[in-house]
Amino acid sequence: MSQPEPNNPKSPYFELAKKYNLKIDFKQFIQVEGISAKDFRQQKINLSDFSAIIFTSKTAIDHYFRICEELRVTVPDTMKYFCITENVAFYLQKYIVYRKRKIFHGKANFEDLIDVIIKHKEENFFVPLSDPHKSDIPELLARNRIRHTIGTIYRTISRDFDSKELDYDLIVFFSPSGIKSLKENFPTFVQGEVKIAAFGPTTAEAVTNEGFRLDLQAPNPKAPSMTMAIDNFLKEFNRNNK
Question: CATH top-level class for 33-157?
Fold first, then answer.
């Protein structure tokens, strides 16, 4: 799994490992570095100018409030929050009194959220993203004439691995940056019988763009989460190999 190991002992990943007698390693292919307040100032963005903010991840939430604290910017109670999913929206409870704020969310992707954003075109939106980031979000906002400003508040970089071998039956990726890290750390990697899973459409696209075979994608109509998708995949795999 190309993400941190869950702290919760009841995580569905551990349940999955127990159910199928799996060995699961959690190895992040990428690492996130926050942009310093000094570097953020060079973008000439005044955070007090915005009446609404768009969050595409929990990481973006963490670094937005970090930057606000470092710059001594007080986020007004009137701020409107637009989150890509309900799960991301709930994460705001770490920083604000959730029930007293105006919070909106999409279902699974940014295309869902844009329908909600369009209903609030009078707002001035701040969109904190990583460096690098894909152009689809800015393009979709511009196409719908949403007044917005993109701000870089963290960087996503490849993590170096000590080992130069990947001895796994299934590798699960959660971001396009993870695929990039795979190519950089393991330039001679040949997929062969190794299964590759991807969470989200942009990650799935990155897998195929790099010439790899995509064996499993989530969310899908039968599985909204990666653990459910893997569970269904293993059921089918075991059924076909009896």
Answer: alpha beta
Cβ atoms of 150 and 127 closer than 8 Å? yes
- Rounded to a whole number of angstroms, the distance between the first and last alpha carbons of the chain is 26
CATH 3.40.50.10090 in the chain, residue ranges? 12-29+162-240, 33-157
CA distance 240 to 152: 47
Instruction: Judge contact between 226 and 215, C-beta under 8 A.
Output: no
CATH of domain 12-29+162-240: 3.40.50.10090
- 106-157 pLDDT, tens per residue? 887 788 899 999 999 999 999 999 887 778 889 999 999 999 999 999 988 8
At 87, list the tokens.
């799960």
Specify the pTM: 0.69
- What is the side-by-side order of every strand in the sheet holding 195-199? 170-173, 195-199, 216-218
- Give the distance from CA 92 to its chain's centroid: 15
* Rounded-to-10 torsion of CA 223, 226, 232, 237: 150
Supply the DSSP symbol for 28.
-
DSSP letter (8 states) at residue 48: G
CA 193 from chain centre, in angstroms, equals 27
What does each C-alpha distance from 222 to 170, 217, 233 come to in angstroms? 20, 11, 11
